């Protein structure tokens, strides 16, 4: 396992270690509900494929996962990243992973970070996120208990450049559409508030 030593060196070292690699990224908390150690198992299976796994974040499982990955040269654990460092990592990544250690219906915020960088999302979350990825062809679902299924998703996107390109383009498009929809909702809400204010005799200041 390769560690990044100090915060000031993170981007430079990540750039050096990730050069010419297919980069699978997790950014988040190292906690039981979102245990990213499944990626260590995948890294072991894919160690000879030119695939690098970046597990960025902090939490109660950090040292446990660091120990599990200590013999793997294709696992990088840079610790907690600030906004600039996270953006740098996403720019140099190819896939974004959303693991969970139990059956859950949730839509983590990190999904939008991944999509904004054009990263296909591979997720173990059921319900809304699974339906979202399937509807927009922006990633893949894997059963939370199956490291083999996650490994196969990663292998499939790594081995098929055309598939990867298509799913990545879909990720970019769906993010742009979501942002446009959010802007439209905000604009409509702002107009509603303006009407309420004017109707109650309040001045609206630009």
Spell out the key features of this protein.
single chain, disordered C terminus, alpha/beta, 206 residues, seven-stranded parallel beta sheet
Q: Give the ordered list of helices and strands.
A: EHEHEHEHEHEHEHH
The dominant shape is globular
Topology, number of strands: 7
In terms of per-residue confidence, which ranges show pLDDT below 50 for 5 or more consecutive residues?
180-187, 202-206
| Beta-strand percentage range | 15-25%
Strand order of the largest sheet: 1-4-3-2-5-6-7
Range of helix content? 40-55%
Query: Using only CA atoms, what is the Rg?
Result: 19 Å
The overall average pLDDT, rounded, is 86
* Helical segment count: 8
Biggest sheet layout: 7 strands, parallel
Q: What's the end-to-end separation, in Å?
A: 54 Å
Class computed from helices, strands and strand pairing: alpha/beta
């Amino acid at each position: 396992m390769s560690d990044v030593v100090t915060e000031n060196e993170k981007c430079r070292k990540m750039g050096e270690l990730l050069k010419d690699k297919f980069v699978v990224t997790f950014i988040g908390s190292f906690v039981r509900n979102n245990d990213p150690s499944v990626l260590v198992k995948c890294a072991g299976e894919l160690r000879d494929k030119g695939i690098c796994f970046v597990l960025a974040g902090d939490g109660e499982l950090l040292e446990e996962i660091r120990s599990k990955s200590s013999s793997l040269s294709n696992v990088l654990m840079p610790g907690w990243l600030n906004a600039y460092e996270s953006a740098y990592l996403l720019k140099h990544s190819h896939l974004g992973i959303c693991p969970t250690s139990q059956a859950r219906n949730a839509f983590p915020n990190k999904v939008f970070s991944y999509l904004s960088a054009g990263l296909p999302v591979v997720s173990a979350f059921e319900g809304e996120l699974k339906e979202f990825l399937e509807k927009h062809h922006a990633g893949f679902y894997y059963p939370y208990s199956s490291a083999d299924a996650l490994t196969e998703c990663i292998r499939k996107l790594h081995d098929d450049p055309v598939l990867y390109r298509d799913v990545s383009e879909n990720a970019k498009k769906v993010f742009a559409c979501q942002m446009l929809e959010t802007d439209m909702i905000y604009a409509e809400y702002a107009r509603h508030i303006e009407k309420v204010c004017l109707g109650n005799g309040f001045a609206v200041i630009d």
